[in-house]
Structures are given as C-alpha cells and as structure tokens.
Amino acid sequence: MSIYDAAKDALKLAQKADNAELVQKILDVQAQALDMQQKQFELHQTIEKQKKEIDSLKEKKKYVYEEGHTWCINPERPDVKLCPACLNRDGFENPMHDIHDSSSHYCSTCKKTFV
Which structural domain, as residue segments, surrounds residue 14? Predict the structure, then answer.
C-alpha cells in the first residue's frame, strides 16, 4: 500500500469521525505524497537521460593500445595512460600513475601494474 493510499483511507476515517483538523492534516500528507511521487518520477527521468548520454559517450570514444605497451590511450588525449582492466570492466577512463625509475604505470583503482 502506498503512502497516498494509506492517507486516503485515513481521510475516510477522519471524515467519519468529523474531525476537521485531522482531515486537513491528512489532505496535507496526501499533497506532499503526490509531490514526492512527482519528484521521484522526474529524478527517474533525469537518471535515464544521463545513462543514455553516458552510453552514447562510451560508444563514440575509440581507445587504442599505445604501441609497444599494454595500457590504453584515448587518441584525443594521448599523454594520459589509461588502465585497460578498468576500461574494459567499467567503461570509464582511469588514469594511471608513472612508477618512478620505470617505464611501468600503476592503476590505483584496480591495483595493477602495466608495462
């Protein structure tokens, strides 16, 4: 049973009891429940729209392995080394960190090292 339905049932009881103050409070609760339901619907719509935008952005990007290495790069930003494990798993760019005195890079998200 939804909040709105519960308030509707309570309103019927309050009207039978002839309690005007209680009727008004229940009407306020119903209005707030409808307001919350509308906001929830709007948020759901926003989330769905953002998911579609993210999927669209993922499809547009073409990642490649940097020649001679195991990490990926985005051709639009070739200076940033990307973790191929995280990229394959999540689809998000996780920049890796240089390991000093080495040609390796470390991903702080998945804790893997790539040469």
Answer: 3-59
Is residue 94 within 8 A of residue 73, CB to CB? The reply is no
How many domains are there within the chain?
2
Residue 61: closest CA among 93, 86, 89, 95? 93
Same domain, 74 and 48: no
Q: What's this model's pTM, rounded to 2 decimal places?
A: 0.44
pLDDT interval class at 35 (50, 70, 90): very high
Per DSSP bridges, beta strands 77-82 and 72-74 are: antiparallel
Cα 8 to Cα 39, 68, 96, 109, distances in angstroms: 20, 69, 56, 50
3-state secondary structure of 107: coil
Structural contact between residues 30 and 4, judged by C-beta atoms closer than 8 angstroms: yes
